[in-house]
Structures are given as structure tokens and as C-alpha cells.
Design a protein that fits this description.
The chain is an all-alpha fold and 201 residues long. 77% of the residues lie in helices and 0% in strands.
């Protein structure tokens, strides 16, 4: 009985800790959306969720740690989205197009997280893993392998694909193409079609 009580207390504490962690991450994102990442601070997060700074420091030692966690979460969620797209779309060229547009749509739906993932808007965050790009886009890598005969080159092709897709996204996010998001999305779609054609001949 005593062991069961201890387990219940431990489970409750873990649940409370997870809830606090999520609240901190949500608050950081909210402030970033409203004011930009450069304005996010432990003090502002503390005020937003009515936690004292020491409580926040129990979860994250500084703002950098919060950014790293959000970056890691972002790459995991994007990976999941891409995996779902690859399952839903069967033809390789159409897959590559759908995967590319998936990244575009996800980036603008989760703009504040995407900014952290790619150090945009003046953010300086340490990558959670040196293989973050490759791991998150594993579905795209598999699609590239099915389009290209020379499998030894697929890592380089994946990097080229990322550069192409991210390039279009960052042009819009940086304000270089204000008010032209849908037009730029169509331009990206055309560029990906050409990219796929060049791979398969």
C-alpha cells in the first residue's frame, strides 16, 4: 500500500512538472508571436504564467535551453507531418512536391517555432542535433532515393532540397517578398517540379 501511495505521488509530481514545462514553452511562443524572439525573457515568461523565476529555472537553466527544446520539438513534429504526407501520396514526383509544400505550410502555421529551428529573426540557438535536418526529412530522403538512380548522392540532394524549400520560406519570413506568400508558394511548387524532373530525367 505504501509503495502504491509513493508511486501515485511520484506520478502526480511528474504530471505537474510536465504541465509546468508545457506552460513555459507555450508562454515563450506566445511572447515570440506578439513581440518577437528577441523580446522573450525568463522574466516575461514568469509574468505571463505567474510562475516565479526559480520555478522556471527548475525546468530550464536559461532562455537558450527553452529555445533548444522548442527547436527539438519542432523538428520532431515536422518529421511526423512529412511521414504522413509520404504515406498519403504514392507517386515519387508528386511526393516530393507534396513534401515540399508540407514544409512550407507547416513553417507558416508554426512560424515562431520555425524561426527557432533555423535561427531566423535574430535568434541564436544551438541545434539539438547535428543531424536535425536529415532526421526530420527522412521521408524526403526516401523519396529522393526513389527518384534518383545514384543513391550515393542522395545526402547532397537532400541538402539541395532543403536549401531550395527553406530559401523560399526565409525570403517571405524575412520580409523580402511582402504580401506575396501565395505567389511565392506557387513559385516554389514550380521549382520543385523542375527539381524532380531533373532527377528522374
Amino acid at each position: 500500500m505504501e509503495d502504491q501511495i509513493k508511486q501515485a505521488i511520484r506520478a502526480r509530481r511528474e504530471k505537474e512538472k510536465a504541465s509546468q514545462t508545457n506552460a513555459i514553452l507555450r508562454a515563450a511562443r506566445k511572447i515570440a508571436v506578439e513581440e518577437g524572439w528577441t523580446k522573450v525573457s525568463i522574466r516575461k515568461i514568469s509574468k505571463e504564467i505567474a510562475y516565479t523565476p526559480p520555478v522556471i529555472y527548475e525546468h530550464f537553466k536559461n532562455k537558450e535551453a527553452i529555445l533548444i527544446e522548442l527547436e527539438s520539438i519542432g523538428f520532431r513534429k515536422l518529421k511526423f507531418e512529412l511521414e504522413e504526407v509520404r504515406v498519403a501520396v504514392k507517386e515519387p514526383k508528386e511526393q516530393l512536391e507534396a513534401l515540399s509544400l508540407c514544409v512550407w505550410d507547416w513553417a507558416f502555421k508554426n512560424a515562431e517555432v520555425y524561426q527557432v529551428m533555423f535561427n531566423l529573426q535574430g535568434i541564436k540557438s544551438t541545434p539539438p542535433s547535428p543531424n536535425s535536418l536529415k532526421d526530420s526529412a527522412h521521408s524526403t530522403l526516401e523519396t529522393l532515393k526513389s527518384l534518383h538512380l545514384f543513391s550515393t548522392e542522395t545526402d547532397s540532394l537532400l541538402l539541395n532540397w532543403w536549401a531550395l524549400v527553406h530559401g523560399y520560406i526565409s525570403l517571405v519570413m524575412s520580409g523580402q517578398l511582402p504580401g506575396k506568400r501565395e505567389q511565392t508558394r506557387r513559385e516554389l511548387q514550380k521549382a520543385i517540379k523542375l527539381f524532380a524532373q531533373n532527377l528522374s530525367g
